[in-house]
Every structure is written in C-alpha cells, then in structure tokens.
Amino acid sequence: MDNKLSLTFWSGVGSVTGANFLLECNKTRILVDCGLMQGTPEADTENRKKFPYDPKTIDFLFATHSHMDHIGRICKLVKDGFSGVIYSTPETKELALVMLQDAIKVMEMNRREQNLAPLYGPEDLDKAMSLWQTISYHDTKKVSDSVSVLVKDAGHILGSAMYEFSCAGNSKKETKILFTGDSGNSPSPLLKDTESIAGVDYLVMDSVYGDRNHEPKDVRDERFKTIVEETIHAGGTLVIPAFSLERTQVVLYELNNLIEDKKIPSVPVYLDSPLGEKVTEIYKHSTENFNEAVQSEIKGGDDIFNFPKLFITHGFKDSEDIEYHLNSKIIIAGSGMSSGGRVVGHETKFLPDPKATVLLMGYQAPGTLGRQIENKPSQVEINDAMIPIRARIEMITGFSSHKDSDHLVQMVEETAETVKKVFVVMGEPKSSTFLVQRLQNELSVSAEYPKRGILYTL
Predict the structure, then answer these.
(1) C-alpha distances in angstroms, 288 versus 305, 362, 404?
(2) What share of the chain is helix, strand, coil (3-state, %, to 5)?
(3) What would the 3-class secondary structure string for 378-425 be?
(4) Is 295 helix (H, G, I), strand (E, B) or coil?
(5) How far is the C-alpha of 57 from the C-alpha of 28, rounded, in Å?
(6) In terms of C-beta density within 10 A (0-12 exposed, 13-18 middle, 19 or more buried), how is residue 383 classed?
(7) Cβ atoms within 10 Å, residue 290
C-alpha cells in the first residue's frame, strides 16, 4: 500500500494572511504555520474561532518564519490543547519570542482599553517555547516512521525556511511535498537568495505578488534616493511605515549606505519602533545569514544598521516629541500597513502637510489604513477624526521581501519536470488565480487555487 498523503488548507487561502495548512502522511499529522488573519474587519472574529481540527491530535507544527500571519495563533493552538513538537530555524524561534511577547502586550492593552479578551497570555507563550525545537538550514530530520523533512533557505526574512517533506508508505516510495512559506525577493539587500526547489512532487507556494512585478532593483534604489532627497530639500518629513521585522532593517541599511556615500544629506532619522529595535539587535548577531556582499561590509568595519543622527525612541513621550523637530527628518515606525503602532500618530500629524511624504514600502492589505492611503483619497479617518491628505504619497514595491510574479514562475520552473500539482496560496484571489493561469500556460504544470477546508488527496 502506498503512502496515504493529504493536504487541507484551513486558512491562508483567499487572503494573504492566516497561513495554516495540515499535511497528513499515514498517521502523522503535521501543521505548517499557524498564523493570524489580519487586515480585514472580520479577522479578529476569525482568529477567535475554534480550530477546525482538534489541536490535541496534531503531532508537529513547523513554522516557516516569524511574521505574525504565520506564527500569531501558535500560542492559541497550545492553549487549546496542542502538546506536540514545534520546529523552526533557531533564528525564527528567537524572533518569534519577541514578536509574540509584543503581541501579548498589545492584546493586554486592548483588554484594558476596549475590553477585548486576549487570544492567549504569557503562560501560553511559555508553554509554546517549552515545546519549541530548532532545526537548521540543510539539515534533514526524521520526525516519524514515514516522514522526514529537509530545511531550505527561503530568503524572505531572517530565519525564513522552506520545508521539503518526504513521505514514505509501505512501498518505501517517497513523495516530496515542499512548502515555500513566503519566498524571498532575491537578490535581497541583506539576505542570501532563495534556494532551489527542484525535484519535488507537490508544491504549496505563496502568491502575494502573483499578478504583478516589482520595479527593477536599480530603479527601486534610484527612486528611494530621489524621494528621500526631494523630501529633505523641500524641508519636509519623510514618514516610512515599516514592518518591524525585515523592512525596518533593510531601510536602516539603505539609509546607512546613502549617508556614508554622501548621496543624501545627513538629517535626523528616528527609529520609532521598540519592536523594530529588538529585532534589529537579533539581526546584528545573526550575520552568518547575510549575503556575501553584506558580510564583507561588516568584516570591513561597517556598522550597517547605524549612522550619524540616528535616534532610537523609547517611550510615547519621545515619540510625540519628534514632531517638534521642525526641520527635515525621516521617521521609521510600525506598523507596515498602518494598522496600529506609532506610525498612525505620525500619519495623523504629517498627512495634512504638503511638504511631507509618506513612503509605503510593501504590500498593503485590503481594509488597512495603509491600503486607504495607497489609494490617495482626499482624506482618511484615523481614530474617529477625518484627516486631510495633502502630503505626497509614494509606493515602492521593490523593497518587498516577497517574490514578484515573474520570479515566482521562475521558481516553479526549477521543478516543472517533476511537480504533479502546484497549490497557490497566501494571496488575494485575483493574484493567486492569475499566477495559477501563468503556471498552466507558460510551464504546462498542473496548478490550482485550493479551497479552504477541502481535503486534497495526493
């Protein structure tokens, strides 16, 4: 009898967020990711629902990386009865701890201010960490009699992994199924390239940018420099909503290079993100994950995340005081989609300022303030007040840590000769379905946009 292999997509289909996929091989039950759904009015309701499977019956959970839409419900899974083993790279485990600690702080604030019960608490995080083990890139681990896993570098954020599961039945014939997590926009300013996925039988892949391409790298870099220069010369403030994890570090690195090379004037730069500061410290001691060029810079003595006039803010008073610096300045603050965090206060202040620029540097989910700002309306509602938009609004997608459409197709091309089915997930429906069509038309592979909750027998 061959291996009994199936996949169920419990969330992470029909939207960019909420990754949660169940792989079953014979009697082994494996979850890949357990993330929060984000960015829509119904997301909180969805996150609070019972899991559609019994967490007690899950043997293993593999976390591809430490963004909250991939790890944000792990503590809820533990709270609801999961007691198996959690696996990730060491860097993902370290980053997940600070990300989940921050999430618990936010939930506690929401409990006090809005009477919203937290999804989980510190005791659930402690239990999750006690179950959490690490596995490094290129290691192969046998997790049960019928399943082993190989870890590959996704190149998305620090510690991000692709998991290639080999599932063997009584015939000893192995079937390989690979989960990309989020595949990186290689070449990355900081990280190594996404590794090859050749030789797999089934593929579960992301599709955030499945229907569009980023600017070329040289165009991206020139646009970033130009936007910074023009805002400074106008005497304005550049507000950059930035994800605390990866985007903040990339922005600091790019500004460091521009300032050191005297390509932009040196003005005050405020990192107004306590979480971003913590994550940056983790990046600083994980340099073996950086690409060769960046490692050479560091060996040459460059402190790549630090430069003159960089100020780290801590308390809310420090954050509020930034606006009293009346000359040109740059503010880097979370969250990346303006769905909370300190950047919302800065947007409230500077969106009405015609000298200011708000620079969006990544995907903005439907329903978020960031998506509204991206659409350049005449005004937006923030904290029950209508805020006029007179500032310059710019978008650069090339700094995204996600592959674009062409590079997603190129990645699948590596395994086109062996792959039996490609499941396209983690994208808005129009993006995912567009990518499905491209894979079918251009590579002649069987590709599908799966439905939530349907069991797919492989």
Answers:
(1) 16, 25, 26
(2) 35, 20, 45
(3) CEEEECCEEEECCCEEEECCCCCCCCEHHHHHHHHHCCCCCCCEEEEC
(4) helix
(5) 9
(6) exposed
(7) 21
> Tokens for 153?
């570098």
Q: Half-sphere exposure of 26 toward its Cβ, with a 13 Å CA cutoff?
A: 18
The residue written with tokens 């990339």 in the block is 250
Handedness of CA 139, 143, 148, 152 (dihedral sign): negative
Identify the pLDDT of residue 1: 38
Confidence at residue 400, expressed as pLDDT on a 0 to 100 scale: 92
DSSP string, 64-125: ---SHHHHTTHHHHHHTT--SEEEE-HHHHHHHHHHHHHHHHHHHHHHHHH-PPPS--HHHH
What does the angle CA 271 – CA 214 – CA 32 come to, to the nearest 5 degrees?
75
Strand order of the sheet with strand 269-272?
A: 310-312, 269-272, 329-333, 237-241, 357-360, 392-395
For residue 281, what are its two tokens? 């410290």
Read off the pLDDT band of 170 (50, 70, 90). Answer: low
- Which pair of tokens denotes residue 71? 């790890």
| Contact of 376 with 368, CB cutoff 8 Å | no
Q: What is the dotted CATH code of the domain comprising 5-211+401-457? A: 3.60.15.10
- In angstroms, the CA 91 to CA 366 distance is 30
Sorted by where each begins, the domain ranges of the chain are: 5-211+401-457, 217-395
pLDDT digits (tens, 9 = 90+) for 264-289: 999 999 999 999 999 999 999 999 99
Closest CA to 62 of 123, 144, 126: 144
Are 340 and 43 in contact by the 8 Å Cβ rule? The answer is no
Q: CA triplet 6, 452, 10: central angle to 5 degrees?
A: 70
What is this structure's pTM?
A: 0.94
**Least confidently predicted of 37-46, 68-77, 391-400, 402-411:** 37-46
Provide DSSP, 218-233: HHHHHHHHHHHHHHHH
Residue-wise pLDDT tens digits, 197-208: 999 999 999 999
Both tokens of residue 437?
Answer: 């069509």
Share of the chain above pLDDT 70, in %: 98
The string of pLDDT tens digits covering residues 152-164 is 999 999 999 999 9
What is the mean predicted confidence (pLDDT) over 199-227? Answer: 96
CATH domain 217-395 topology: Rossmann fold (3.40.50)
